[in-house]
Amino acid sequence: MFEAFYREYLEEFIEALRGLDVAVLENIMKELESARQEGRQVFVIGNGGSAASASHWACDFGKGINVGESKRLRVFSLIDNTPLGTAISNDISYDEVFTEQLKNYLNAGDVIVGLSVSGNSENVVRALAYGREQGAKTICIIGSARGRMAELADILLVIESGNYGIVEDTHMLIGHVISQYMRRVSVEAAG
Fold this sequence. Notes:
Blueprint: H1 2-18, H2 22-38, E1 41-45, H3 49-64, E2 74-77, H4 82-91, H5 97-105, E3 111-116, H6 122-133, E4 137-143, E5 155-159, H7 164-190
Parallel strand pairs: 1-2, 1-3, 3-4, 4-5
Helix pairs in contact: 1-7, 2-7, 3-7, 4-5, 5-6
């Protein structure tokens, strides 16, 4: 019984990966590399498992892509400051937890990466809308439900699955593929 479930899950995961638009993945990579070269900030946001992925992205892009004295990407996960996040959530609203932080840090031209399964997380939607008003570039990586985030994306990647596990697994795979590619390019440039 478990083995059958495992094989079914694996098949759905592989199908979701095969369905990814590689041209869009490359556009995401190019935007992140451009931000690195130009010193623009990148903010990664999400809820639940996508929040964990946002933290992991900040680690991989903040440390993992660097080689020697390579140019650094200024990347931050807005879920990582627990005291600030709980203060905003308690005193203002959880719907504003990311927007209020962006008000402190965001500059025109910075990048906001929104990770979501549903594409409808209110705090992510509001942060993306605020970011666009302020001149930020928005990247959304969402599940097949698309949601309101799809309308707020300058670069949109849809993972063709409604299974939260498959979508979140794919968030991590995308982060690893892009960050490891950026590292490889840095290694080659360092000669």
